[in-house]
Amino acid sequence: MSVCRVVLGCRSGKTRGAGFAAVFLALLCGASPCGAQTRDAFAARGLALDRVHKISLAAVRNTIIPAARAAAIAPGATAFDWCYLAELLTLVGDYHAKKFYEEAIVRDPEDPGYEWAYAQYLRVNRGAMEPLFSQAEAHLFAAERKLACISDLKRRALPKNFNEILTRAFVDLRSEERRVG
Predict the structure, then answer these.
(1) 32-59 pLDDT per residue, tens
(2) Distance separating alpha carbons of residues 43 and 3, to the nearest angstrom
(3) Rounded distance between C-alpha atoms, residue 37 and residue 60, angstroms
(4) Who has the most CB within 10 Å: 56, 109, 120, 144?
(5) How far, in Å, CA of 20 to CA of 55, rounded?
(6) Contact between residue 86 and residue 117 where contact means Cβ atoms under 8 Å apart
(7) What is the DSSP string of 118-145?
(8) CB 26, CB 51: distance < 8 Å
(9) Strand, helix or coil at 121?
(10) Phi-psi region for residue 10, left (φ > 0), alpha (ψ -120 to 50) or beta?
(11) pTM here?
């Protein structure tokens, strides 16, 4: 069962990174929030941020995360489901997020977005206590390689400025290395 089916009650398994109010209005008006929106690392991050900003952390821990965990371990779960759970765990400060990012990468080994999301986690969230710059760099390089190899169809599903996003991630990583090292 996908995150969308658990959290939003949709049958198609797709979700939007739209705000809670937009999803509620769409449901209220009879439109499905499960339109032809991409389900990638960026959508997972957007949905997780939206959830965390709209309700209390306790509610996220007690309601949203268990539902996302159930969706991730259900048969047919996608990389999006695993990344969404990882993003939620990251936002509430749970260090178990690592294994869920890794599983998202395994579930969609061609998508560079999941490598980028994991690199950001390693650089920003795990790096505060224990710098993990070399691991973050390895995942950024993997994202760069995957970007060079993906089909045009998958490339169109990524943000148009994904090259710039990767470049910015490398710049941020280098500046943090110089600051810490």
Answers:
(1) 334 445 789 999 999 999 999 999 989 9
(2) 12
(3) 24
(4) 120
(5) 10
(6) yes
(7) HHHIIIIISTTTS--HHHHHHHHHHHHH
(8) no
(9) helix
(10) beta
(11) 0.76
